[in-house]
Amino acid sequence: VFDDKLGDPTALVEAKDGKLYGLGSGSGGQVLFQIGTDGATTVLHSFSGDPIYGNFGALVVGADGNLYGTTSGILTVTNHGTNVQNGGLWRCSPAGTFALLHTFDNVDGLFYPSLLVATENGDLYGLVGGRAIYRFTAGGVFEPLYTIDQGVRGLIGGTDKNLYGTVGFGGPFGGGTLFKFVFGSPSAVNLATRMKVGTGNNVSIVGFIITGNGPKKVLLRGIGPSLSLAGKLDDPMLDLHDASGAVIGRNDNWRVTQPGGVVSGDQSAEIKASGLAPTDDLESALIASLSPGNYTAVVSGTQNTTGIGVVEIYDLDLEASANLANISTRGFADTGDNVLIGGFITNGSSYGRSRLVVRALGPSLAQFGISNPLNDPSLAIYDQNGGQIATNDNWQDGNQPEIVSYGLAPNDPHEAALYLSVAAGNYTAVVTGSNGATGVALVETYNLP
Fold first, then answer.
1. pLDDT of residue 352
2. What digits encode the pLDDT tens for the residues 113-163?
3. For the residues 196-216, what does the mean pLDDT come to?
């Protein structure tokens, strides 16, 4: 029974500890309260001293067992201008430790947060302004996703990991609609690396991982002659190896199929039909349907020739229940045109952003017998217009908790890493040595779920 000291309850959830938690009003203002298994009621947190104002919007239990909620904020328009009292997204532990995670201050046009959905991976999805859906990642990154042209009345997470909601108007009779917000499509659909291809241990070696429950159809290319660069590789040879090291596919010139392993029949017509046929007949390509596992693509020069070459992997089946999860390339990071370059293409839509972690490793390669590793790699990401969108020298210098939460923190503090949330487009990762240093480095791109 609530009284004048604690009343007006507006939300109630059961947490993993078996206790009930709710929002209400206490003698000192708005509060988050706890009801123990014995029925005892305790004020867990008072909002009276916090820099957020307005009505409560939501209360949910996160995957980590903490409580998450929203406070609307207050926006007052007068003849003298607009007065903003911030709203917020917050977290509180069952022990009462409170943290403000994101402030809604109307600077970006987003105000009045309300509905909130917690997911199994720790991400939160919420509604702000009645129409805009956002994501707040488990690592602490706020990402606006999509704006609906009607006011949203309800929002829930489905068992299929998509969002479902209702709007109060629209539809053929004007009575409202039910919508589904689909996730899972945005991803890296192309991963590539450009480097100077040598001989012996200095050929271009690209490792990639396929994850999921079924096969993934990919197209691999070895590019050289068509590059607009001096010192390019004149005649690249492409070999595909499985996890045991066995060669399961090979090609020298893409118009001439070399059957064997995962390659059967003449592939030239299929390669051309994909729209990804190399522009030079001396360049190599093959198509393979690969089960989940680890694979290696090796590009070398025919008759031990050397030069700058590109290794590319394209996802040809975006709807498959498997993902192109990672590509890693070891090569010599030089200067000028001979720096180590990784590229990726992401797909998506107006609501979808692909999430990736890109790493540049050097010092930690010494433990694997590399005698001349790049001692201090630097990493820069560029968009398709050549604009630099992110850079990192030492991974610990940036506030990037996703790198740690996904288990992708480099072993050496001098190595570089970046967490990216990007729209559909073409991107380039450039690895160089700090202060013009050179050496063997590893550039990696991880496609996050």
1. 55
2. 999 999 888 889 999 999 899 999 887 888 888 888 788 989 998 887 778
3. 83
Say whether pLDDT at 429 is over 50: yes
Which residue segments constitute the domains of the chain, with CATH numbers given?
A: 6-147 (2.120.10.30), 188-447 (2.60.120.380)
d(CA 103, CA 155): 21
Instruction: Give backbone dihedrals phi and psi of 249, rounded to 5 degrees, phi first.
Output: -165, 145
Dist. CA 15–CA 17, nearest whole Å? 5
Q: What is the pLDDT of residue 258?
A: 95
Q: What is the pLDDT of residue 1?
A: 63
| SS3 category, 26 | strand
Structure token digits, residue 364: 């930690």
pLDDT > 70? residue 227: yes
What contacts 299, CB < 8 A, 6 or more positions away? Answer: 197, 203, 204, 206, 222, 233, 236, 237, 238, 239, 284, 309, 311
Rounded Cα distance between 239 and 244, Å, is 14
- DSSP output for 51-99: S--S-EEEEEE-TTS-EEEEE--EEEEETTEEEEE-EEEEEE-TT--EE
Q: How far is the C-alpha of 361 from the C-alpha of 410, rounded, in Å?
A: 7
